[in-house]
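Pasting as-is:
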Amino acid sequence: MPLTLRLRRIGRRKKPVFSIVATDSRNARDSGRYVEDLGRYYPLRQPTEVALEEDRVMHWLEEGAQPSDTVRSILSKRGYMLAMHLKRQGKSEEEIQEAVEEHREERAGEEEMGITAAERRRRALEEERRRSAKPRRSAPARPSKRRNARRKRRRPPKKPRQRLMRKM
């Protein structure tokens, strides 16, 4: 049975909350059929919040479960994929723990610098105001009326439609 670690939507409308589950890759996303629930992902909270059972995630990764792209990204940011990589290389537990802690410290600074939706909106409004405050260039010169008149003359005249009459 090919296992996958992936997201399962459990939030309500416009308030997504995802459950990170270990499931058979052939099951539908929200079918309810999964092997184990490993944690939660709250994408709308600022910064995004992830609650995982670390030992169970590592267990399923060791068993060969393949994470989906989004789950792989979440696990990479928290250092689980790094730990798996180092474990496969045969590093000791102390070396793995040191590398993961160093990785998490580096990533902690990046998460704090994350821009909230309100900040993004404020910057976009400022940019729009700045653009509208710039003086506008004059419109390109329009072709003279004489030139337009010549263009009209060059077109072939339209032929009137002829009605077909049926003979009785």
